[in-house]
Amino acid sequence: MPYFVVVLGTAGSGKTSLTSALYTYLTSHQLDAAIINLDPAVEEIPYDPDIDVRDYVDAREVMRKTGLGPNGALIASIDMLISNIQELQDLVDSLKANYILIDTPGQMELFAFRDTGSIVLRSLIGNAKAVSLYLMDSVHMTRSSNIFSSLLLAASTYVRLGYPQVNVLTKTDLLGDGVLEELLNMFEDPEALASMIVNDREASMIWGETEVSQLLEKLLVFDIVPVSNTAGEGFDSLYAAIQRVLAGGEDYLTEEPNPVL
Ligand SMILES: Nc1nc2c(ncn2[C@@H]2O[C@H](COP(=O)(O)OP(=O)(O)O)[C@@H](O)[C@H]2O)c(=O)[nH]1
Ligand SMILES: [Mg+2]
Questions:
Q1: pLDDT of 108-148, one tens digit each?
Q2: Given the CA of residue 135, which atom of ligand 1 is nearest to it?
Q3: Residue 23, class by beta-carbon neighbours within 10 Å (0-12 exposed, 13-18 middle, 19+ buried)?
Q4: Which Pfam families does this one have (predicted)?
Q5: Which domains does the chain have, with CATH numbers?
Q6: Residues with CB under 6 A from ligand 1
C-alpha cells in the first residue's frame, strides 16, 4: 500500500510549491512518487499531476455557471467532488507509486474545516498510512503571538483530520540572518516563548504564563521542520520526519530499495 502525504496550510503558505519540491526530492532519490491535485481553483501548478480534480470540477467554471463568488464556488466544487469520489478512488488505486502526495485547496478553512474535506481525504486514503504536513509560513512568524496562533491552527487541523502530523516552517529563505535559529530556539523553550506571548502587549491573552507554557508543550509535540521550497533546503530532514511517522521510527525505509540520501 502506498504512503499518503497530505499537504495542508493556509492560503499562500506554500502547499503547491512544497508538493512540487517534495516530489522532486523523492524522485531524485529513486523513490516512486505521484501527485494528486485536490485544488479545483488553482490556475497554474508547477508539477504534472497524476490525478487532477480540475478534470472533474473546475471552480472557475462553477463561478461562471452559478454566479457564486470564489469561496462559494470552491465550497460547491469540493462538495461536487464527492459525487465523483468512486472514480477518483479507482484512479488512486491504479497509481503505482509508493508515495502519493496530495496538494489541497488554497483556502484551507473551506477544505479542512468543513466535513467534505475530511470525507474526500478518507475516501482517497482508505486504510493506507498517511501523514499530514501542516505548513506554517515563516513570514507570519514575526511576533510571538503570531507563532502561538499558528501553532493553535496547526493543532486544530490535526484535531479535524486526525492523521499524524509534521509541522513545516516554509519560506525559510525569506528570514533574515539568525532569525531561523531564534525561531527554532523558541520552539525548544516553551517557557521562554510563553513569557513572550503573555507579555506581547498587542495580543489579547486570556491565559496566564504557566497555562500558556503548558499548552505550548502540548502544541510542540509535533515536529517542526524548516524548509525552503524555492531553494530546495530542508528536505532531508523533512523526509526523515515523514519516515518517522509513516515507518514508525524503527524501520527507516519503505518496502522500496534503499533511498540514496
Ligand atoms: N521565497 C519563497 N517563496 C515561496 C516558498 N514557497 C512558496 N513560495 C511562494 O509563495 C507563494 C504561494 O505559494 P503556493 O505554493 O502557491 O502556496 P499555496 O497557496 O499554499 O499552494 C508563491 O508565490 C510561491 O512562489 C519558499 O520556500 N520561499
Ligand atoms: Mg496551492
A1: 888 899 999 999 999 999 999 999 999 999 999 989 999 99
A2: 20
A3: buried
A4: ATP_bind_1
A5: 3-138+163-173+223-246 (3.40.50.300)
A6: 9, 11-17, 106, 170-171, 173-174, 228-230
